[in-house]
């Protein structure tokens, strides 16, 4: 059985463009055409540039589906293992305050120089270097800080945050806030 193609489809086919594949896929095929198509090796076409899952420099394999329409397959790429989720242990709730501009340049209790914008904090008993997730209970914001100083020694406050951590938690303007402390394990 002889078969004819529309002139535009034939021109696209001869030009080597991958655009002709949908036109050919929609046209009727004879049994011998489909056997020939299945016997051919996979055709490689450049990946579409708008695709986020496939990098433009990688080839995309086109394979025949059961219904006779070609489908694009992204080459398999190795994936990194999923990161282990952080675990937290409740260390308490209470009032937090912040300290900053008057102490910049001074040494903290563990010997570091206190710098603006740091994500550090002072706690009375937690060991230096302990990472603590601090959650502002008034607005729901949270941040992870590192303990590098001792304090606070005022009233019933449980933690003193550096200026950078206080900004992230949204308690600079109020000066204090109710917080929940969780030690990162």
Q: How would you explain this protein's 3D organization?
A:
- This protein is an alpha+beta fold and 185 residues long.
- The chain has 2 domains: 67 residues, no CATH class; 97 residues, Barwin-like endoglucanases, CATH 2.40.40.10.
- A 6-stranded mixed beta barrel has the order 4-8-5-7-6-9.
- Helix 1 crosses helix 2.
- The longest helix is centred in the first third of the chain and has 9 residues.
- About 6% of the residues have low confidence.
Beta-strand content estimate: 25-35%
Q: Identify the CATH class of the largest domain.
A: Mainly Beta
The level of helicity is: 10-25%
Looking at the overall shape, the CATH architecture of the largest domain is Beta Barrel
> The biggest beta sheet, please?
6 strands, mixed, barrel
What fold name stands as the CATH topology of the largest domain? Barwin-like endoglucanases
- Shape descriptor reads elongated
Which helices and strands, and how do they pair?
Elements: H1 7-15, H2 20-26, H3 31-39, E1 43-46, E2 59-64, E3 70-73, E4 88-99, E5 120-122, E6 131-136, E7 142-149, E8 157-162, H4 163-169, E9 176-184
Parallel strand pairs: 4-8, 5-7
Antiparallel strand pairs: 1-2, 2-3, 4-9, 5-8, 6-7, 6-9
Helix pairs in contact: 1-2
């Amino acid at each position: 059985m002889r078969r004819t193609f529309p002139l535009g489809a034939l021109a696209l086919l001869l030009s080597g463009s991958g655009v002709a594949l949908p036109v050919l896929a929609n046209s009727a095929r004879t049994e011998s055409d489909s056997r020939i198509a299945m016997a051919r090796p996979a055709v490689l076409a450049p990946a579409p540039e708008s695709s986020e899952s496939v990098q433009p420099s990688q080839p995309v394999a086109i394979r025949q589906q059961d219904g006779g329409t070609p489908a694009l397959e992204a080459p398999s790429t190795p994936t990194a293992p999923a990161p282990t989720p952080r675990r937290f242990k409740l260390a308490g709730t209470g009032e937090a305050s912040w300290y900053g501009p008057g102490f910049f340049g001074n040494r903290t209790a563990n010997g570091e120089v206190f710098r603006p914008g740091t994500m550090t904090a002072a706690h009375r008993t937690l060991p230096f270097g302990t990472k603590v997730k601090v959650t502002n209970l008034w607005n729901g914001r949270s941040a992870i800080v590192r303990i590098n100083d001792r304090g606070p020694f005022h009233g019933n406050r449980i933690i003193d945050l550096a200026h950078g951590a206080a900004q992230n938690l949204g308690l600079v303007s109020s000066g204090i806030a109710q917080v929940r402390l969780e030690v990162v394990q």
